[in-house]
Amino acid sequence: MQQYLTSRYAGTGGSIKLTPEDFCVEEIPAYLPAGEGEHLYLWVEKRNCSTLHLVQLLAEKLQLKPAAIGYAGLKDKRATTRQWISVSAPSEIDAETLSTLDLGAAIKILSVTRHSNKLRLGHLRGNRFKLNVHSVVPDGLERAQNIIHILEHTGVPNLFGAQRYGVRANNHIIGDAILRADFARAVQEIIGAPATISNIHWQKAAQAFADGDIDTAITVMPRQMRDERRLLQALRGGASAKKAVLSMGKKILRLYLSAYQAHIFDRQVQMRLDSLDTLWPGDIACIHASGACFRVENPAAEQTRADAFEISPTGLMPGKKAMLAHGQAGMLESALLEKEALPVENYSALNGLQVSAARRPLRVRAEGLTCGMEDDILTLEFSLPAGSYATSLLREIVKAQ
């Protein structure tokens, strides 16, 4: 049974993402390009296209390595999104070349300029959303307004979005297997059990792999699943499960490892839903304006700042060099870590894939949160800080049955 911060209020019900236009996202950059510098900056609008697919497409079209393409954040595939992309390109590739580049009907390059540095993950303030929810209940607007009132005062549970866990919701399981050096289990989870896969071609590939027919698995695996195909090709070439998994590349492997961290963090959010805005003894609080963290020595004295949404309690993203909470908050974290029974040294066991600990606020503020309704379609508009997910707010309002 799902848990909600606003459980005493009925949800609106309804369906999201029936079309890419139902989920519109616009990046709020940390800075605007200066207009000069060695890196080309592209303001791109894309429809039904993931950020990683765009990166791959640009690299192929420009005959560059994917590492030459920078981005500040990953955006949903089934959506209409606008974001900045940077290109580190040789001099023969200029703004005019990029502005006339044909990337298909789903991708539009709206403008091209220059800046002095490459875009990197985290170089953004947040994202602005406009979402449509179809087929909500007749009193959906009133229900949404009641829930929004709570979210504005308490904050939005800072849960990770479903996309962090992948289409089969098992990225964290793969990350767990990698951290425990159980690479055979990681392979099985990456390829997947046929019965759990809806894509017919992927399902056939998974069945062929289960039957020991790697050649057929490679042949029928969807071409866009490049990482999975690379894994299978490594296995066919005689690589061990460990070498095959590591051959997939650091980008996808870091995604699996971060999903494991996200899973542990989300459990902490769920355990503290009744006190997201309340500081506990021993908490480590985050200052929203700066992102800095400090240990709470006197919860009563600091609570006024939490009430003003200046600070919030944080949860642990486990890894090496962790800053652990003490007291009541520390007991919760320790219990989770003890249950995981993952040695701290495992976070540093793989060269180039070390997992560093971090603290993340248990709640965030949704700025400019408004809603409207026409017929049975509820429209929501709001902004969230970088690293937070619209689906975390949406789940509170819709409340899946």
Note down, in words, how this protein is organized.
- The longest helix has 22 residues, at 250-271.
- The strands form three sheets. Strands 1, 2, 3, 4, 5, 6, 7, 14 and 15 form a nine-stranded mixed beta sheet that branches. Strands 10-9-11-12 form a four-stranded antiparallel beta sheet. A two-stranded antiparallel ribbon has the order 8-13.
- It has three domains: 31-121, TruD, catalytic domain (Pseudouridine synthase, 2-Layer Sandwich); 156-271, no CATH class; 272-364, Pseudouridine synthase (2-Layer Sandwich), CATH 3.30.2350.
- It contains 13 helices and 15 strands.
- The chain is an alpha+beta fold.
- It has helices at residues 51-62, 95-99, 140-154, 171-179, 183-191, 200-210, 214-220, 226-236, 241-246, 250-271, 299-307, 327-340, 390-398; strands spanning 15-16, 23-29, 39-47, 69-71, 80-87, 107-115, 124-134, 156-157, 284-287, 293-295, 311-317, 358-361, 363-364, 367-374, 377-385.
How many domains?
3
Q: How many strands in all?
A: 15
Low-confidence stretches: none
Rounded to the nearest angstrom, the distance between the terminal CA atoms is 9 Å
Gyration radius over CA: 22 Å
List keywords for this structure.
401 residues, nine-stranded mixed sheet, Pseudouridine synthase, 15 strands, alpha+beta, 3 domains, 13 helices, 22% strand
Task: Set down the secondary structure blueprint.
Elements: E1 15-16, E2 23-29, E3 39-47, H1 51-62, E4 69-71, E5 80-87, H2 95-99, E6 107-115, E7 124-134, H3 140-154, E8 156-157, H4 171-179, H5 183-191, H6 200-210, H7 214-220, H8 226-236, H9 241-246, H10 250-271, E9 284-287, E10 293-295, H11 299-307, E11 311-317, H12 327-340, E12 358-361, E13 363-364, E14 367-374, E15 377-385, H13 390-398
Helix pairs in contact: 3-13, 4-5, 4-10, 6-7, 7-8
